[in-house]
Amino acid sequence: ETPATVTKSDKAFQAAGMPLSDIRNPKQTLANAEIHDLAGVSVGRVAEVVTDSKGNAIELKVDVGSYLGMTYKLVAMKATDFKFSPKNKMLVTRLTKNQIHVIAGG
Question: What burial class does residue 71 get, using C-beta atoms within 10 Å of its C-beta: 0-12 exposed, 13-18 middle, 19+ buried?
Fold first, then answer.
């Protein structure tokens, strides 16, 4: 069995900010936050934050329409696919444009 290798994008994602599980009041904090991919390209905006019974973010509903060349496209994405940069009030996703396109049903 070969050990898992840590890629450059894994390191960049880890350095991008804090996990969403560390955010207090994620519904308010993440409302309308802009989302970028690891290349710095805008992916969309948070439309809704879904939380568990303890108030932790578990899913984001994201408008990725303009990113994918559509007028409006809401997709549900796992909270673990994002990091939050409080300084910029911005989220970074580890997902690529192609992965987001697949999630969006394209």
Answer: exposed
Using the predicted structure, report yes or no on whether residue 53 has a pLDDT greater than 60: yes
Q: Give residues with Cβ within 8 angstroms of 85, minimum separation 6.
A: 16, 17, 18, 91, 92
Beta-sheet pairing, 42-51 with 82-85: unpaired
Sign of the C-alpha dihedral, residues 19, 98, 37, 51? negative
Distance from C-alpha of 76 to C-alpha of 88, rounded to nearest angstrom: 23
C-alpha dist (Å) from residue 30 to 9, 15, 21: 23, 19, 12
19 pLDDT band (50/70/90 cuts)?
A: very high
78-94 residue pLDDT tens: 999 999 999 888 999 99
Whole-model pTM: value is 0.82
- Compare 52 and 64 and report the one with higher pLDDT: 52
| Token pair recorded at residue 45 | 């905006």
